C-alpha cells in the first residue's frame, strides 16, 4: 500500500530541501582563572583589608605614646608574636628618645637595654648597620637565639631570663623602600600554559592585559610591572629575587636608601624629623620567624606608621617649644616675703595659651600679685602674654599702691600695641605686715578668701576686660585677711576644666576650699593640691609647668596664705 503524497500547492515544490538558518557565531566564554590565581586574589584582598583596618586604628591615635602602643599591638598580630618593644630615637638627634614595651615591664625593658647595642635587634636598626654592599638593613631576625654561636653572650642571657627565644625587628623609616613583595599581596604569578584546561593559557589575569594587578594603596609610585611572569609593585623586589643572607641575625632583605617620596615629604612637612626614627622588635616565646608574607605586611604597616609617628613627633616638638617659651616668660620661683607664703600650680594647654601669674616684691615689704589671660592661643598669644606681664610689673613698681591705675595703664598699652586683642587681669597690692589687700579686676574671675570661719568670693568683676571699651574704669576693693586665712587667685581654665556650667563650677570651687582639712590649710602647696583634686574631675595635682593633654585652656592657681 503506497503512502499518500502530499498535495501540491501552487508555487511550492516540496521536493526542494529546506533552506539553512543563518545565525550569529557564538563566542566561547572566557576560561575562568585557575584556583591558584583565585586563591592569590582572595589572599591579596584579605591582606589589604587587614592593612586598612590596622592603619585606620593607627590614625585615630592622638598622642605619640598611643601611636607607639598601637604600632606594637598591630605588629604583634601581623607577625604572630606576643611581646615586643619599640625604641624611638630620631636620627636628627632632636628627640624624643622613648622606649615602649608590649607585655614587658620597666624592669624587663631595663634588662633589654643592657644588651650591647650592636647585638640587640633594635640596636642593629638604631645603629643603621649597613650590609656588605652598602645597603641599609631592612629587617633583622634572630630565629633561634640560643643556638646562635656568634651572638653576644649578654643577649642570650637576657633572652633566657625574660623567656623569649626569637626576635624580629624592622626599622621605623617613612622613606625606606618596601623590603619585598609577597605572593598574595602584590604579586600574582601567571599560570602555566594549559593550567586552565584550554591548553593555551588564555583567560589568565597575568596574560589578560586588561586587568593588571593593582599597586599597593598608599605607597607613592606603586605602579605595577610584570617581570618573568610575576606582577609586582614597582620599586620593590619580588620574593624570587629578594636576597636572603645566610646565617643567623642577618638582615633577610635589604632596601637601598632612596630619596624621600614627594607625597610623604609633603605630608610630614619640611621641618619634620627626617631619616630613621627608631626600630620596633617583637619577641617569640619559641624559636620562630615570620613568613615572607608576614614580613611584607608588617614592613608596609611600619612604613605607614613611621609617617604618622613622624607627624606626631613634629607636633610634640612644636608643643614642647611653645611650653618652654611660656614657662620662661613666667616666674621661675616665687618670692619670700615675711607674713605670707605662696604656692602656684600652672598647667599649660597643649596649644599654648596666654594665661599668666606673677608675684613681685615691692618697696616697704609689700607684695604685688597678679593673674590674667590674653585672648587666643598659640605662639602669638604666648608672646602677647609675655609683653603684658612685663609691662604690668613695670607699672606695679611705679604705682602699685593703686591697682586701678596699674590696670588703666595696662589697658592703654594693650589698645595701642595689641588693638585686635583683649585680656583679663587681676592685680592685688598686699601689705603682709598689716594684712591689708587692695584689689582691682578687669573681667577676671573673683578671688576666693577662705579660712576656718568664712569662705567667700571677693567681688571684683564689675568691670569689662581690657581692650573692650574705649575708656576703662573699675573700682578697687579692700579686704583684710585674718591670720591663717588664704586668698586664692585662679584663671577661668580651672572652671572650664570641670566640664560644668560656670555657676556650678564656682560652687564646686567654693565647696573645695571650704572643705579643706585643718592640716591642709596651713600649707599653701598642700592646699593647692587639695583644691585641684577636689575641683577637677580627674584630679590632676602635678607640679608647675606640666602640660595638659586634654585639649583645654591653661590653668593657673595662685595661693597666698597669711600667717
From TrEMBL:
Residues 133-142 have a biased composition (Basic and acidic residues). Residues 1-35, 123-153, 183-272 are annotated as: Disordered. It holds the Pfam family SpoIIE. SMART domains: PP2C_SIG. Residues 339-562 form the PPM-type phosphatase domain. This is PPM-type phosphatase domain-containing protein. Keywords: Hydrolase. Transmembrane segments: none annotated. The keyword Hydrolase applies. Residues 222-239 have a biased composition (Polar residues). The keyword Hydrolase applies. InterPro entries: Bact_Sigma-Reg, GAF-like_dom_sf, PPM-type-like_dom_sf, PPM-type_phosphatase-like_dom.
